Amino acid sequence: MSGFADVIGHKQPIDVLRRAMQNGKVAHAYLFTGAAGVGKTTVARAFAAALNCQTLPDDACGTCVSCRKMAQGNHPDFVELEYEPDPKTGKVSEKYKIEQIRLKVIKQSYYRPLEGRVRVFLIKDADTMTLEAANALLKTLEEPNAQNIFLLETRHPQLLPSTIRSRCQLLRFGALSSEEIGRFVVVEMGVSEEEALTVAALADGSLGRAAALDLEYLQNVRLPLFAQLLKMEGALETRALAMGEMILAGGEDMKEVIDLLTGFLHDALQWRVEPDPARIRNRDALDLVEQYAQRFDVADIYAKMRSLVYARRLVERNVHKQMIANGLGVDLLATQATMFTRGRLPK
Questions:
Q1: Percent of the chain with pLDDT over 70
Q2: Does the reported pTM lie above 0.85?
């Protein structure tokens, strides 16, 4: 990727950035907000390349020395923070600590750019800075230097201190359209247009999520999982155990399986309210969605969705997965409201 021309979507924030460059009014700090995988980092890197491009005034040409170094990931005036291992445990921390902010950002901001016009700092998931790290960065933002540009990204801007937010120009990144994602999937993943429709619908407007979806997994795990929700033969306990085993076997991250089931129930709820195939995410499972929607009323589906939300929280709390899966099996397959609203999930 070279410049803005290669970015999929996000015309509005890109136009803001280009006008700022054209008018010589680039802010010293920007806060990019939006869901994961929509393209915040892609735009940030393109903007960083454009700021130091030696050819174009408001974009990256992709061919000058500066742009080539950006593409190769070795430009000395572009600093992209990554999580670092904890020196005691060796595990990668999911926080930016004050030592890292001081060394990689604040200290480097004191010096002139080595090659470019400006030095650009990119802090992804900026909300994961510790309070001490955020306060240290704040002092730098309060005394802006024209040779430094700070790009902060976050899915959760409300988790950043208000003092940080107030010193950044906010740019919001919305979800990409299904058409935009579909075109990307056909070209980059080499799938059929029919498969692209399914991937685009399941991606929830996130290009990153679309690229990470495994088509074989979607066919071999997701569809049988949905079909199990409709099986009525045999005792509830037997079917619930089978459902629990399928949830456990669905992948290492049970949250992904829970998210798939939540999406299916959302489709069933949507079908009850407005039976429009265009509004269904799991389009290749439309028959199953319709059957499920006919079997349960709105209140029942809502109750089952609450069980899934609660189960996801239990996974995040590291509760035993077998207990969660078994409880979900009963809650999802029970046909009487009194059976599943009472809940079979561990407390």
A1: 96
A2: no
Domain extent listing, the chain: 4-173, 214-340
pLDDT in tens, 201-217: 888 888 888 887 777 77
Q: What's the CA angle centered on 12, arms 117 and 43, to 5 degrees? A: 45
Which residues contact residue 239 at a Cβ distance below 8 angstroms, ignoring those fewer than 6 apart?
228, 231, 232, 233, 329, 333
d(CA 46, CA 18): 11
| CATH topology for the 214-340 domain | Zinc Finger, Delta Prime; domain 3 (1.20.272)
Displacement of CA 5 from its chain's centroid (Å)? 22
Neighbour tally for 112: CB within 10 Å? 9
**CATH of region 4-173, choose from 3.40.50.300, 3.30.70.2190, 3.30.565.10, 3.40.50.2300:** 3.40.50.300
Q: What are phi and psi of 345, to 5 degrees?
A: -80, 150
Among 6, 81, 78, smallest CA distance to 42 is for 6
